[in-house]
TrEMBL record:
InterPro entries: TOPAZ1 (IPR038952), TOPAZ1_dom (IPR029435), TPR-like_helical_dom_sf (IPR011990). This is Protein TOPAZ1. It is found in: Cytoplasm, Cytosol. Keywords: Cytoplasm, Differentiation, Spermatogenesis. GO terms for biological process: cell differentiation; spermatocyte division. Residues 194-367 form the Protein TOPAZ1 domain. It comes from Fulmarus glacialis. Pfam families: Asp_Glu_race_2. Important for normal spermatogenesis and male fertility. Specifically required for progression to the post-meiotic stages of spermatocyte development. Seems to be necessary for normal expression levels of a number of testis-expressed gene transcripts, although its role in this process is unclear. GO terms for cellular component: cytosol. The keyword Cytoplasm applies.
Length: 595
């Protein structure tokens, strides 16, 4: 090497180096002589002697303490020097060089850094790990770029060294920061670029998110990223582009997340925000696809809140209302009911408070759902919806449930026309339990239908309730005076039930030894519009009364006595048949009819 005369030839040109206590010549290249510095380092590296390599480190450290790399700086020399130091197990000198490179903003090759980790791991130098991690962090902060697989490579070496979880997490967090950078570099062009129409872009976005989230302990960073992705997905939902990017993104996240619950919650919350955007834009089909995807991934979004926008503060009632409306708009009654059922039909609750507008919207939504079910003759589903109208499940809704009388009666009428006694009976039971007014005509029709279907126990229960509600006029005359007045408009079932009450009320007299001298009278009372001239309706009533006695078990026998001044038929009930009826039925009849 041709050295200027002011340079110490013993130091630069001999293996022993300069041994003078005080040397007047230079041991560090002068500023501006970077080309000479590189030549010296190349020579030392090529000789591969440990002492010269240490001297090379001294020269490099001292030279670049005063100057920054210039045009003659050779990165390959730096990398070769580090590799040679590793081969000679000069780890302390390696860290010296790396620290200098950070200070002068000159980065070594990634492969060299990986070889440093490999060297430490292969020799199991655990004492070097803190310095290694610290140096690694400095290089990253200085701008060194690693691929994802490089991080995996480093983490593998750290596991081999059995380092602490804290040290592993340090590397994982740096990896997350890298993914953030790539994500943001990828995300921001999306709204304005044409290639965001491709499915692969949203799939990649999902995979990048999972990589960013893995091992990340910085919640604020993750929150910012989540908000950014949510904004991108919701912004796209406001366009007329085909497809639903959220679905591709959600599939990618779930596929790569290895069943991480945090990712599922994240998908659910973004899904709510995207659903709100589609709802606002009246894009019902796309909104439905979002809900179908959440259902497919088994994500219960009804217990979550949105990630951005007003839906972050939305009540559970409001979120469920929006979802159910989307199902309705796309013709899925079962979907609307499913989402309501999944939310336990919740309206207002301490953990999920809602306002009056939400409750009003729920009321209107359920009314619509009931009408659609009735149109399709799906009575049981309609009844389920009716039972969960605001005010029934939660008393804090402050809703007057009496307003629902018309809806329930409409259901009972539809069931009655379709001869669906099961649902109509359940509806009446519910209305009685909630003190909701029942249409007396429908209640009487149900009692008659139950009796004609031989469901006498149920018919008697409703007849008893109907009496207490005033559905029938008070029993004319005095039951205990052996006189029963039956309105002629009653069906044969109602007439028989009235006779049963009459028999039970007079049971003690009928069963008395003196009963043979007594008469049990039944008067078939005309209605106000049943004039003598128009007698057909009244004659039909006479036939129903005779039928009522005949269908009784055991049969009852009536004997025509006379016609009173009001032209009403008067009958006597044969005591023998009455006594037989009581003997066979008094055990249960006493419990049913003794009010």
């Amino acid at each position: 090497i041709e050295l200027p005369r002011k340079y110490c030839r013993f130091y630069f040109m001999t293996l022993r180096g300069c041994e003078r206590a005080k040397c007047w010549f230079w041991h560090v290249p002068e500023q501006g002589d970077e080309k000479i510095c590189m030549a010296i380092l190349r020579t030392y590296i090529s000789i591969k002697e440990s002492g010269l390599l240490k001297r090379a480190v001294q020269i490099f450290v001292k030279y670049y303490k005063e100057v920054t790399p210039g045009v003659d700086f050779a990165s390959q020399v730096l990398n070769d020097l580090l590799i040679s130091l590793l081969k000679n197990c000069l780890l302390r000198e390696v860290f010296q060089i790396l620290n200098v490179t950070v200070r002068i903003n000159t980065l070594v090759a990634v492969d060299v850094l990986l070889k440093v980790f490999e060297h430490v791991a292969s020799l199991n130098i655990r004492d070097a790990v803190p310095t290694l991690i610290s140096t690694f962090c400095k290089l990253i902060d200085a701008g060194m770029f690693l691929e994802f697989e490089h991080f995996d490579y480093i983490i593998k070496f750290l596991h081999q060294l059995q380092v602490s979880s804290q040290e592993i997490n340090t590397v994982l967090n740096i990896k997350s920061r890298y993914v953030f950078k790539e994500l943001f570099a990828y995300i921001y062009p999306l709204p304005s670029s044409q290639h965001c129409k491709e499915k692969s872009d949203w799939t990649k976005l999902g995979a990048l998110y999972v990589n960013a989230r893995t091992g990340c302990e910085h919640f604020d960073d993750l929150q910012k990223l989540s908000l950014c992705i949510a904004e991108i997905l919701t912004r796209d939902s406001e366009t007329d582009r085909p497809g639903v990017p959220f679905c591709d993104f959600a599939d990618a996240v779930i596929k790569n997340s290895q069943h991480n619950e945090a990712d599922r919650i994240f998908i659910g919350r973004i899904g709510i925000s995207v659903m709100y955007c589609y709802h606002k834009a009246l894009q019902w089909i796309k909104g439905r696809k979002v809900l179908d995807k959440l259902h497919e991934l088994q994500i219960d979004f009804t217990v979550l809140k949105g990630l951005i926008g007003t839906e972050r503060l939305a009540s559970r009632c409001q979120i469920v209302n929006k979802a159910a409306e989307i199902f309705l708009k796309t013709g899925s009654l079962d979907g609307a009911t499913w989402v309501l059922r999944e939310s336990d039909w919740t309206t207002n609750a301490p953990l999920w408070p809602c306002d009056k507008v939400d409750i009003l919207n729920r009321h209107n939504l359920l009314r619509t759902l009931v009408h659609k079910y009735l149109t399709k003759s799906l009575y049981r589903q309609a009844f389920e919806v009716l039972q969960n109208l605001p005010g029934f499940q939660n008393h804090s809704d402050t809703v007057d449930v009496s307003q629902y009388s018309c809806l329930f009666n409409k259901l009972i009428n539809a069931c009655f026309e379709s001869k669906n006694l099961g649902v109509s009976s359940s509806a009446v039971d519910f209305m009685l339990s909630k003190n909701i007014a029942i249409d007396f005509f429908l209640l009487r029709g149900l009692i008659t239908a139950l009796g004609r279907s031989s469901l006498w126990s149920k018919a008697r229960t409703y007849y008893k309730s109907a009496l207490s509600l005033g559905c029938y006029p008070p029993l004319q005359g005095n039951l205990y005076h052996k006189l029963l007045t039956i309105p002629s408009y009653l069906s044969e079932v109602e007439m028989l039930l009235a006779i049963e009450i009459f028999l039970v009320s007079n049971a003690s007299d009928i069963q008395s030894p003196m009963a043979t001298s007594q008469t049990l009278q039944i008067i078939l009372k005309r209605c106000e519009d049943q004039t003598v001239q128009n007698n057909s309706d009244y004659q039909a009533a006479v036939e129903r009364l005779i039928l009522a006695a005949r269908v009784s078990d055991p049969k009852l026998f009536l004997k025509h006595m006379t016609m009173n001044v009001n032209m009403e038929e008067v009958y006597s009930l044969e005591l023998t048949s009455a006594l037989k009826w009581l003997q066979e039925n008094m055990k249960w009849a006493g419990k049913v009819w003794l009010f």
